[in-house]
Amino acid sequence: MSTVLHETTTAAASTGSTRKRLREGAFGHARALACRECGHEVELGPSYACPECFGPLEVAYDFPTVTREEIAAGPANIWRYKALLPVPSDIEQSPNTEPGFTRLLQAHNLGRELGIDTLWVKDDSTNPTNSFKDRVVACALSAARELDAKVFACPSTGNLANAVAAAGARAGMKTVVFIPSNLEKPKQVNSAVYTDHLVAVDGNYDDVNKLASEIAGEEEGWAFVNVNVRPFYAEGSKTLGYEIAEQLGWRLPDQVVIPVASGSQLTKVDKAFRELVALGLVEDKPYKVFGAQATGCSPVSVAYKAGTDAIRPVKPDTIAKSLAIGNPADGIYVLDICRRSGGAVEDISDDEVRDGILLLARTEGIFTETAGGTTVGVLKKLVETGQLDPTLETVVINTGMGLKTLDAVADRVGPAATIAPSYDAFVASGVL
Amino acid sequence: MSTVLHETTTAAASTGSTRKRLREGAFGHARALACRECGHEVELGPSYACPECFGPLEVAYDFPTVTREEIAAGPANIWRYKALLPVPSDIEQSPNTEPGFTRLLQAHNLGRELGIDTLWVKDDSTNPTNSFKDRVVACALSAARELDAKVFACPSTGNLANAVAAAGARAGMKTVVFIPSNLEKPKQVNSAVYTDHLVAVDGNYDDVNKLASEIAGEEEGWAFVNVNVRPFYAEGSKTLGYEIAEQLGWRLPDQVVIPVASGSQLTKVDKAFRELVALGLVEDKPYKVFGAQATGCSPVSVAYKAGTDAIRPVKPDTIAKSLAIGNPADGIYVLDICRRSGGAVEDISDDEVRDGILLLARTEGIFTETAGGTTVGVLKKLVETGQLDPTLETVVINTGMGLKTLDAVADRVGPAATIAPSYDAFVASGVL
Fold first, then answer.
1. Which of A270, A297, B134, B372 is buried most, with the most CB atoms less than 10 Å from its CB?
2. CB distance B189–A415 less than 8 Å?
3. What is the CATH class of B133-231?
4. Molecular function (GO) terms listed (chains A, B) (predicted)?
């Protein structure tokens, strides 16, 4: 495929609210949007539902030959995998937050604590706005640019709002972030620093979401990252899988534990592993995929345990807000992947979430948010219940950072002693 | 130098409170600790003041030949420069936080705003505990290990406490962090999550510091990162300079703007640039170094403007707490470097610090803490006052992240509108 990028007369995408003439290579080696249910393909553009069966669309590719060396010669961010993403080959030239290639830490201490022989933590808390959302938003931003969107936008309460507001500022795009008006002030500030266009909506998150869909339908030229450019956005999560494999020395782990909100991340890590095998970049081997939820919002785990495919929507009630999606769009695919691979889906209580946060901080020096506490806590439960094999190499994903959900553990930790400023007082304190 | 590492009978360091037989190569290619004032050399060990003249000791090396290719083949963290640091060649085998190799972002928007042709932001907010302190602490941790320290420790109010507590947890070392007892609860939590040995001291930061020095003098086997292993610790800041040069494509910038607290970071970036030239890794060229302070704690800037070498200690009164060192140990060297290179030292008000935070967030999508707001605000002032040449390639360093000092801008930003959850309400709001 030519990497020369220029304006062509390629027909614009025929659906959605954003239209432009696409330049050649606007979406890299992506071929089409393909329906996950019926396989029907539509042109690349701001579409997200199959016109035949309303199934979800995802990006399909005609991949070129890609070598480990080419990838290793790329930048220390997600664009080292640009040949495998729906982005143009000159993506590095467009200002973006340059997320990814985060740490994969071998977790000796946590492994010892849990009785797992070989354990790794993939730590996405060190992304530009401190969550894995920077990956997906970077891919959505590229799509928004190539589709000539006028406005970059999202509805969100947390990590996504931060990531969109930051990426939009860096790209110099008009960026509108919709939040529920009762969102805590610190979380508002963490998005409002980046944009003049933070909009508070009197309603709950569902109301905010519905408003976003309405605007996406009514307005021309809006790119809502998780609505009308969602297929491009979702592909960003594949980079977590690519990085895990590359950082392990170009091989797949035996087991991987991933938090489940919409379920998109888990399905994309699995997709990434399969792509790497298909491309000959890693050896084929069996691996088990595990999903983690908080009990207060565990529709996928409930369905898994009931042995059914029917996911019953729930009203979330958990401190793990960034996992609190009561009706997860990709839940059905999560069930399929976890069952087919020999993994499982498990859930834990909010107290166990808090324990998970402290366990990871105390053992590996990683301060995670409630989503990460959920994943680590579920890892522990999976071992204890015999669902995860502690003799197999395991990777657990941390998706965000603890400063964003400080309250979750604020009452659980503190000074061991308060002393007068003297050596004698320190000795007398018995701290050591 | 042999890279075979084994126990030898090399004499232990003769000063300080931590003693052990050093293994060969414990400090890599470091040769000795050399006095910055008189040049007197002492053995590598837990010493920080010259026994001859009480000048500060810093690490001296016998560097091997190092190539760009060897460095590029290393990990995406500071250990890619291990041959240039006082660490053993097997440093990657010892659990540490793996900091560094953070983003160097070309700042088109901020450059345009300030009228600077070519501007880069070196963004250290994406380190493991979200500040540059992870770099220095990783080097201190290695020294503590090689010296067989029993306890890893620091006095701190902020970023350093976080970095030490996290690194100590990951290393599995007993870690004690001393803080003033009146430190705000969220800042306490951000260290207490990692360690059971947070000690609150009834007193101000000076009292806490004095207590730390007292314990370092009385106790065997304590490694206080910024006291008795300070020479090793300080070397970690060199990696900021190495990375800037490598990420620019192995060349030096024309101008670099660096915050000044103790002044150590600025002197080490300069040292790094000179080492790269000496090693033939970059071409020699003139570069100007600029220091940034907040007016409420600007002893170095005051001395610079007065044209004197006498730095008069001050009592800090600024929101830029992580720069609030009233009696900066390396201030005199900062003056020398900035004057000799044709740079300058400048300071700005707390309101300008807040402006700097928002300016960086709005233009580049980077949410920095007050220290970064200081540096960006000073950059602006340097251009406006004609002290910095806007036609020369410039790098500005961001040392930390905004969630840690959220209050600084909490009253300055917020929603543009609060609306009912309907499309009509959005249109009527006039947000766009």
1. B372
2. no
3. alpha beta
4. threonine synthase activity
Point out which residues pair with B347 in neighbouring strands: B293
Compare all CA atoms of chain A with the CA of B171 and give the residue at the minimum distance.
Answer: A364
Question: In the predicted model, is pLDDT for residue A13 greater than 60?
Answer: no
Q: Please tell me the predicted confidence (pLDDT) of residue B19.
A: 52
ipTM (interface predicted TM): 0.94
* Neighbour count for residue B342 (Cβ, 10 Å): 14
Instruction: Please report residues of A whose CB lies closer than 8 A to that of B414.
Output: 188-189, 192, 198
Which chain B residues are closer than 8 Å to A133 by Cβ? Answer: none
B103 interfaces chain A, CB cutoff of 8 Å: yes
Distance of CA B263 to the CA centre of its chain: 9
Q: Do B397 and B241 contact (CB within 8 A), yes or no? A: no
Give the closest-approach CA distance of B166 to chain A in angstroms. Answer: 4
B79 touches chain A (CB under 8 A): no
What pLDDT does B85 receive?
98
Whether chain A has a CB inside 8 Å of the CB on B251: the answer is: no
How many angstroms separate the CA atoms of A296 and A319, rounded? 8
| pLDDT of B136 over the 80 cut | yes
**First and final CA of chain A: distance in angstroms?**
65
The pLDDT of residue A206: 84
Residue B57: HSE in the Cβ half-sphere, 13 Å Cα cutoff: 31
**Residue-range domain boundaries for chain B:** 104-130+237-407, 133-231
Pick the CATH number of A104-129+237-406 from 2.40.100.10, 3.40.50.1100, 3.90.1010.10, 3.40.50.300: 3.40.50.1100
Architecture (CATH level 2) of domain B104-130+237-407? 3-Layer(aba) Sandwich (3.40)
The pLDDT of residue A119 is above 60:
yes
Rounded distance between C-alpha atoms, residue B148 and residue A306, angstroms: 54
Most B CBs within 10 Å, among A150, A156, A175, A189, to test the B interface? A189
CA distance A405 to chain B (A): 11
Task: Compute CA distances B148 → A105, B21, B235, B291, whole Å.
Answer: 23, 9, 19, 36
Q: Which residues of B touch A172 (CB under 8 A)?
A: 108-109
DSSP state of B400: B
* Arithmetic mean of pLDDT over chain B: 93
Contact B414 A77 (CB under 8 A): no
Please state at what angle helix A159-171 crosses helix A133-146, rounded to 10 degrees: 40
pLDDT in the model for residue B185: 87
* Nearest neighbour of B169 by CB, restricted to A97, A151, A361: A361
Q: Is the Cβ of A365 closer than 8 Å to some Cβ of chain B?
A: yes
Q: Report pLDDT digits (tens) over A343-389.
A: 999 999 999 999 999 999 999 999 999 999 999 999 999 999 999 99
Residue A359 and residue B261: Cα distance in Å, rounded? 34
Question: Per the CB < 8 Å rule, is B415 touching A199?
Answer: yes
pLDDT at B156 over 70: yes
Going by C-alpha positions, the residue among A338, A154, A367, A361 that lies closest to residue A259 is: A338
Q: What is the pLDDT of residues A169-179, one digit of tens each?
A: 999 999 999 99
Residue type, B142: S
B5, pLDDT greater than 70? no
User: What pLDDT shows up at residue A21?
Assistant: 78
Q: Do B361 and A193 touch (CB under 8 A)?
A: yes
